[in-house]
Amino acid sequence: MYSLHFMALSTRGALLSPSRIGDLNRSRVLQAFCDHGPLSRAELAKLAGVTRATIGNITNGLIEAGLIEEHEPREANGVGKPATPLWFAPGAGLSGAAALTQGSFEVGLVDARGEVVEFAEGSFDADAHTDAELRARLGRAFDRILPTDTDRLLGMGIAVPGVCDTERGVIVGSGQIPALQGASLVESLSRRFGLRVLVDNDARAQALGEKWFGRGRGEPTFASIQTGHGLGVGLVLDGVVYRGDRGQTGELGHTTVTLDGPRCRCGLAGCWETVASLGWLRQEARRRRLRDPSSLDAARLVAVASSGRVATGLLDDYADHLAVGMANLVQLLNPRLIILHGDVVGGGEILRARIEHHVQERVLPNLRDGLRVELSDLDQRAGLLGAAALVLSETFKLVS
Ligand SMILES: [Zn+2]
Question: How many Å lie between the centroid of ligand 1 and the Cα of residue 107?
């Protein structure tokens, strides 16, 4: 059973040993840091549901271990002593992180504050290279950035474009990088560096990254959507990233939105991805006779939309087509927040507002209030931060 579930069950048990209770209180404190960012001891006690005395013991232990430290006191608001916030120490809680896309990868050394301390990148031929070659390239990139003494690391996290059984450390399959299939990547990195290695689907890892470091912080239920060449979704439901049976969840891009729609690369027809990806956008730009259709993306579409009706129309259609899948998700699970990654981030506020407008328009009236669509502010680091968040969540056994 996945450890998050184990923790959730164990918190309900009545017969916990004192050391186990210590673990749980510590987890609650770390959970509060994850949900809210830097906090004073008084705020921690309130949020973690423990006494001030208990907080003192836990925070002292975490400070002695070098994981957290006191930061500059906040401005006093006229009454009493200014509160001293506690937060992860720079360089503490390090993870090795890797994010793979079709043909390229990034590796990083990431701390618990979400700072990428070391960074390297590489490329490969997704069709020609074997799994052994891919493993070797990733291993060499990690060699360049990881400290020689890997005992300092909590573990390694890998985010890949594919279906992942995180519990077993197996990549079930990847259409974009077929050579990834199987358990060999996790096993070889674990052997080479003597660390625990966790692997997950990139959209789910991004959702975890948002929960730890981004706009998902403190949000119990939200969706994180990858846009661009494909569409993927990571769901955090009641504080836990949802993985479904053997990791096979989040294929929102392949839900049917047009009954007689075009054939999708997955083999089905009329998938959301066929009408809301860059492939569709470029095809439409060609059909509508816009300039340089084959390199069009959200950023350029917004730039040219101010000067012509055709581009404005295409921008609104792209926004609406993206909104269709999001609206379906809202009808089903009612996340109050949808965080967007990938191509649409380049479209900025203009595109975000159009998408939010169309999502609102396409959901039932009672679901509209407070429903937000936001652009991720994790930028290019979203993949690596997601991979690091995999390790942090597992290490600290966060439950809600
Ligand atoms: Zn499909």
Answer: 29
